[in-house]
Amino acid sequence: MSERTVLIVDDEFAIRDMLRMALEIAEYRCIEAESIQDAYTLIVDERPDIILLDWMLPGGSGLELLRRLKRDENTEEVPVIMLTAKTTEDNVIQGLDVGADDYLTKPFAPRELIARIRALLRRSGSGQDQGRMEVNGLVLDGESRRIFVGDNAIDMGPTEFNLLQFFMSHPERAYTRGQLLDQVWGANVYVEERTVDVHIRRLRKALQTGEADYSGLIQTVRGTGYRFSSRGL
């Protein structure tokens, strides 16, 4: 297996040095950055396999860099583990909502970090990507951006496709309208939350095909928002 590259983004030299030594013993190649600007340059130039991202950084928070990465199709699939001293539930939820794949609070054992890195790299390299997904005979082809039931294609708009792709990639979890706006429309786009309801209705209508009715996959979660689930169908 080729050597995997880990980008360590932390403004404290002692932490970067500790992480680098542990990762090199585990046979990872390490590159380091101490600011958002340096990190983004390395991401573009080096294309790391995974990023360890500190929450508090010079020039802004790690969340700002995370949002930027998740909005860019060239970097949105790179796994990110947030490293921070923040421990409240709100902070954890905020980091995961923005798009972090995992979260570790300082101090942590290097062995635990290595285990989580390996798990994320196995997941991202397993071939179970978003190129082609299937649920109960409903097939989404990410490369051609088409939806099929059997040999029949389902017609839907680009926003409805993006919504369905996100839902199928994150099943059985309830999302608020605000979270869906951030994930599907982008955190830098200012759209009213009621817009989500309009596109959910359009998506459900498109999923009512001649062969089968898949509209029930998109479930309303009272008091929260929406969830994609095949349970009960």
From TrEMBL:
<dbReference type="GO" id="GO:0032993">
    <property type="term" value="C:protein-DNA complex"/>
</dbReference>
<feature type="domain" description="Response regulatory">
    <location>
        <begin position="5"/>
        <end position="121"/>
    </location>
</feature>
<keyword id="KW-0805">Transcription regulation</keyword>
<protein>
    <recommendedName>
        <fullName>Phosphate regulon transcriptional regulatory protein PhoB</fullName>
    </recommendedName>
</protein>
<keyword id="KW-0597">Phosphoprotein</keyword>
<dbReference type="InterPro" id="IPR001789">
    <property type="entry name" value="Sig_transdc_resp-reg_receiver"/>
</dbReference>
<keyword id="KW-0902">Two-component regulatory system</keyword>
<dbReference type="InterPro" id="IPR011879">
    <property type="entry name" value="Sig_transdc_resp-reg_PhoB"/>
</dbReference>
<keyword id="KW-0238">DNA-binding</keyword>
<dbReference type="InterPro" id="IPR039420">
    <property type="entry name" value="WalR-like"/>
</dbReference>
<feature type="modified residue" description="4-aspartylphosphate">
    <location>
        <position position="54"/>
    </location>
</feature>
<dbReference type="InterPro" id="IPR011006">
    <property type="entry name" value="CheY-like_superfamily"/>
</dbReference>
<keyword id="KW-0010">Activator</keyword>
<feature type="DNA-binding region" description="OmpR/PhoB-type">
    <location>
        <begin position="130"/>
        <end position="230"/>
    </location>
</feature>
<dbReference type="GO" id="GO:0006817">
    <property type="term" value="P:phosphate ion transport"/>
</dbReference>
<dbReference type="Pfam" id="PF00072">
    <property type="entry name" value="Response_reg"/>
</dbReference>
<keyword id="KW-0963">Cytoplasm</keyword>
<feature type="domain" description="OmpR/PhoB-type">
    <location>
        <begin position="130"/>
        <end position="230"/>
    </location>
</feature>
<dbReference type="InterPro" id="IPR036388">
    <property type="entry name" value="WH-like_DNA-bd_sf"/>
</dbReference>
<keyword id="KW-0813">Transport</keyword>
<dbReference type="GO" id="GO:0000976">
    <property type="term" value="F:transcription cis-regulatory region binding"/>
</dbReference>
<dbReference type="GO" id="GO:0005829">
    <property type="term" value="C:cytosol"/>
</dbReference>
<dbReference type="Pfam" id="PF00486">
    <property type="entry name" value="Trans_reg_C"/>
</dbReference>
<comment type="function">
    <text>This protein is a positive regulator for the phosphate regulon. Transcription of this operon is positively regulated by PhoB and PhoR when phosphate is limited.</text>
</comment>
<dbReference type="InterPro" id="IPR001867">
    <property type="entry name" value="OmpR/PhoB-type_DNA-bd"/>
</dbReference>
<dbReference type="GO" id="GO:0000156">
    <property type="term" value="F:phosphorelay response regulator activity"/>
</dbReference>
<dbReference type="GO" id="GO:0006355">
    <property type="term" value="P:regulation of DNA-templated transcription"/>
</dbReference>
<keyword id="KW-0592">Phosphate transport</keyword>
<keyword id="KW-0804">Transcription</keyword>
